[in-house]
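can u do me a favor
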């Protein structure tokens, strides 16, 4: 992709709320979701965020033209799979058509017509925006791998294969929920250090994982790998993702296979999908240190080296039951950037399909936990608490945490920001821990 008129920082909308400094949803963003009026029995339908409003795409299709109108009409469904399957030309036409219709210089007759197609974001509720056929969670942060590896396997904290390919496991689709998801603390087995037998009970070491979700827009035929140089054309956009983890259950069961019950009870995503085109100004060179192993040829390209990384700022906060009762704001836990990730999203797609796996529109890839190299940039509480050995003091209260407690809500936020370009926000991804459901619950 290349920069175009939709990235112009001077562009403004006739909707005043979209022009407020610091807004997540200026006219340069236009992320997609599915929504309905909060508390109603209406069908969910595709929408785009602009300022403090969500624009109903099905209703707006009558006021657009050509391919943009057809693409908007395809969004008038409870999920966006059919729209995704139309491909990059339709995605581009819709984004550019909406940009023109919402621009301050749009035809005067468009403004009242589109206002009738809007609902305040405060009055909207959301659902998982795609029918997700498959969910794959990667493991691509070297800093996270090293931090956790030192706790699990000090002699070899990072396995050799991590440097050669993006590693992943297949997750559970049925437990993916949208921001606001509440889930019960999972039950399972854990093995205490030095114990002779495992015990069954509620997870005692519940954790979050700060990630991005990568939504596949167009798939590939089985047996036909997606080359690295074409991988970006198969990605529609990104969301925030929290890969909740029961660490005590996970570490016991991961001998020798991958995560199972430690990961399958809940995954929370933000409702808004930010398009790759909106993120284009925030691309950076993808860099591999010269003294590290370099990728094999199928995971290497000039384009990926030049602009494979994305500078997405990420923030994690904790809202506890006590803080809510006191009216105290959520406590900051960490902040980092996606630019530190060891593998790019294009490399994840190429690796996923190299053996012939067929991706489909709406498939979801998790980037793996996003941790940076500096103190305070860890994307999971197991890193911040050093495996539970160091209690975290929560700012603004007397509370401490080594792992998550019942009633805790983890809030992820993401945005892109730099001089000379509009701020692009992802909104919020919030999930809350409820007490375990035991036999006596």
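np, heres the sequence
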């Amino acid at each position: 992709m290349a920069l175009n008129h939709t990235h112009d920082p001077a562009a403004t909308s006739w909707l005043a709320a979209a022009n407020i400094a610091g807004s997540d949803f200026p006219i340069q963003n236009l992320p997609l979701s599915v929504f309905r009026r909060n508390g109603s029995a209406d069908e969910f339908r595709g929408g785009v965020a602009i300022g403090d409003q969500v624009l109903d795409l099905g209703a707006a299709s009558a006021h657009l033209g050509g391919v943009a109108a057809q693409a908007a009409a395809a969004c008038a469904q409870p999920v966006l799979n059919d729209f995704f399957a139309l491909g990059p030309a339709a995605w581009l036409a819709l984004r550019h058509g909406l940009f023109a219709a919402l621009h301050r210089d749009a035809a005067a007759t468009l403004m009242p017509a589109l206002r009738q197609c809007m609902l305040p974001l405060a009055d909207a509720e959301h659902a998982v925006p795609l029918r997700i056929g498959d969910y794959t969670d990667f493991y691509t942060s070297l800093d996270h791998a090293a931090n956790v590896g030192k706790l699990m396997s000090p002699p070899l904290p990072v396995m050799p294969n991590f440097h050669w390919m993006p590693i992943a496991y297949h997750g559970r689709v049925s437990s993916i929920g949208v921001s606001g998801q509440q889930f019960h603390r999972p039950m399972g087995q854990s093995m205490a250090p030095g114990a002779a037998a495992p015990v069954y009970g509620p997870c005692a070491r519940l954790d979050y994982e700060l990630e991005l979700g990568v939504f596949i827009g167009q798939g590939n035929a089985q047996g036909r790998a997606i080359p690295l140089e074409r991988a970006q054309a198969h990605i529609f956009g990104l969301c925030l993702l929290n890969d909740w983890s029961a660490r005590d259950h996970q570490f016991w069961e991961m001998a020798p296979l991958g995560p199972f019950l430690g990961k399958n009870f809940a995954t929370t995503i933000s409702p808004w999908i930010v398009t790759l085109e909106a993120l284009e100004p925030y691309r950076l060179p993808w860099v591999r240190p010269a003294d590290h192993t370099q990728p094999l040829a199928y995971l290497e390209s000039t384009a990926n080296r030049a602009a494979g990384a994305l500078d997405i700022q990420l923030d994690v906060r904790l809202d506890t039951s006590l803080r809510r009762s006191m009216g105290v704001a959520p406590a900051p836990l960490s902040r980092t950037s996606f630019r530190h990730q060891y593998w790019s999203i294009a490399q994840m797609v190429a690796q996923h399909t190299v053996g012939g796996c067929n991706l489909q529109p709406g498939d979801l890839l998790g980037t793996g936990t996003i941790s940076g190299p500096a103190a305070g940039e860890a994307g999971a509480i197991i890193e911040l608490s050093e495996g539970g050995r160091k209690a975290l003091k929560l700012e603004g209260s007397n509370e401490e945490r080594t792992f998550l407690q019942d009633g805790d809500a983890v809030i992820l936020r993401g945005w892109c920001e730099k001089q000379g370009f509009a701020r692009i926000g992802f909104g919020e991804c919030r999930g809350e821990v409820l007490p375990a459901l035991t036999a006596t619950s």
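The chain has twelve helices and 26 strands. hope that helps!!
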